[in-house]
Specification:
The chain contains six helices and three strands, in the order H-E-E-H-E-H-H-H-H. The chain is mostly helical and 194 residues long.
């Protein structure tokens, strides 16, 4: 808060308070919107936290979760995205493995999805402004305190390698079909959300 104090000439807790609630919407999702996703909130004081919680409670039907600190609220957001990135990385690694074994990944996922506790993530590219970035925020903070998260970085590596893997498979298919190199490929309607 030193930046805000210096810029305003006020002191945190006396002249102003700070509240925080991470953005948790899922673009393109018609079911889970601002009002149906629980808001995580915290602030610089109990009074500010209660004010922020009451404000969101007036518009968010899903309710409000009060985190004990702004850092805990932000960390919750970062691990939501890091967990998603890692789950996609696992599916990407399995897709590469199954491809090499001659097994259709979609068939494997269809079978695995029949178990109630299987998480139905799909292999593919990671997009958006948070999912591929938040793991780096977390590992940066870890490095600042002398830790090196192996699993988080491995997941990022797997996901960052997927565009090259997919491009390689497209080129192999073109060669197999006798297409001239380099092939001319049109990408129509590329998006990260359906």
């Amino acid at each position: 808060m030193p930046f805000l104090e210096a810029g305003s000439g006020l002191k945190l807790g006396e002249g102003f308070e700070v509240g925080y609630s991470p953005e948790r919407i899922n673009p393109g999702d018609k079911v889970h919107d601002f009002t149906t996703i629980t808001k995580v909130v915290s602030a610089s004081s109990e009074v500010a936290t209660r004010t922020l919680a009451d404000l969101y409670a007036s518009v968010v039907k899903a309710g409000v979760h009060i985190a004990p600190s702004i850092k805990a609220a932000e960390a919750a957001k970062v691990i939501e995205n890091t967990q998603r990135d890692l789950n996609i990385a696992l599916m990407n690694e399995l897709a590469i493995l199954f491809h090499a074994m001659g097994i259709d990944t979609r068939d494997v996922l269809a079978g695995a999805s029949t178990k109630w506790n299987f998480l139905p993530f799909q292999p593919g590219l990671v997009g958006g402004h948070c999912i591929g970035v938040d793991p780096y925020y977390l590992t940066h903070k870890a490095h600042e305190i002398g830790l090196t998260p192996q699993v988080i970085l491995a997941g990022r590596g797997t996901n960052e390698a997927m565009p090259a893997f997919i491009a390689g498979k497209i080129i192999q298919s073109c060669v197999k079909l006798g297409r001239s190199m380099p092939p001319k490929i049109a990408i129509l309607g590329l998006t990260y959300k359906a």
